[in-house]
């Protein structure tokens, strides 16, 4: 049984990823490796336009665009380590929010 994953990104999400990769905890990774990862995501992902993210209003307003993108992109799951997203109740959001580890477990079981 072969599984595949489509990654959806927008300009705002790519800018966020680039900024996150510059944080001190990622500085221990080689700069070339971080650049290669970002380039790989840009090449492999499905690119969509940024979407209106004024609604829903989350505890951390900076996460609104991620949720709006997931809804607009009709994704099967949102993968994140962001606690503000992971703390959302299932009934608050129509898309499952999984940690990368939980997503991989789910993917392996299909």
Verbal overview:
This protein has 110 residues and is mainly alpha-helical. Helix content is 42%, strand content 7%. It is built from 5 helices and 4 strands. A two-stranded parallel sheet has the order 1-2. A two-stranded parallel ribbon has the order 3-4.
Estimate percent helicity.
40-55%
Q: Tell me, rounded to a whole number, the average pLDDT.
A: 85
Q: Cα distance, first to last residue?
A: 7 Å
Please describe the biggest sheet, giving its number of strands, its sense, and whether it closes into a barrel: 2 strands, parallel
Number of helices: 5
Multimeric state? single chain
Rg, please?
15 Å
Q: List the strand order in the largest sheet.
A: 1-2
H/E element sequence = EHHEHEHEH
Q: What would the principal axes of the Cα set say about the shape?
A: globular
Topology:
Blueprint (H helix, E strand, L loop, with lengths): L7 E2 L1 H10 L10 H14 L1 E2 L16 H9 L5 E2 L3 H4 L10 E2 L1 H9 L2
Parallel strand pairs: 1-2, 3-4
Key structural traits:
single chain; 110 residues; mainly alpha; two-stranded parallel ribbon; 5 helices; 4 strands; 42% helix
């Amino acid at each position: 049984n072969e599984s595949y994953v489509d990654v959806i990104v927008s300009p705002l999400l790519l800018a966020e990823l680039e900024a996150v990769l510059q944080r001190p905890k990622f500085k221990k990774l080689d700069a070339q490796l971080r650049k290669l990862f970002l380039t790989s995501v840009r090449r492999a992902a499905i690119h969509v336009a940024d979407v209106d993210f004024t609604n829903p209003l989350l505890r951390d307003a900076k996460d609104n665009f991620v949720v709006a993108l997931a809804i607009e992109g009709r994704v099967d799951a949102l993968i994140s380590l962001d606690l503000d997203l992971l703390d959302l109740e299932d009934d608050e959001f129509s898309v499952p929010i999984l940690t990368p580890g939980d997503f991989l477990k789910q993917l392996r079981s299909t």
